[in-house]
Specification:
Layout (H helix, E strand, L loop, with lengths): L3 H34 L7 E6 L2 E6 L1 H25 L3 H27 L22
Antiparallel strand pairs: 1-2
Helix pairs in contact: 1-2, 1-3, 2-3
Length: 136
Amino acid sequence: MNHPSSQHRSGRVAAVLLGTVPSIAVLVVALVLLRIWRADLPKEIATHWNSHGVDGTMSLLGVVVTVVVIAVLGAVLGGVAGWYIRESEPLRVTLGLVNGLTVFVVAGIVSTVGAQRGITSVYDIAFRQSNSSSRV
């Protein structure tokens, strides 16, 4: 027969895993994709735009460090939440928010980088501007 404390401990371990595994999984996928795309990316990767085009860039190493920091922070926050939050509802909400936000931000960064494959310089990219005054 299982002792109540061992059931409680296994529940905590499961919650910690639910808090950490999604962040680690998205980190692994992101690092694999960035590694595969490395040769096709420009030396400077666009990371910020304004109404006139690119106004902020970062190296691939900078992007990798950013992705690692975000995913590790998400895993740590999810793991701590899984260990210390004991009530079911707040735990589910917290893990959903932490995991969802981590996956969303990392996927957004990686998809933005992926869209720049095959470009020699990010400054050659121009926004298409519609000229509304030429329409009749």
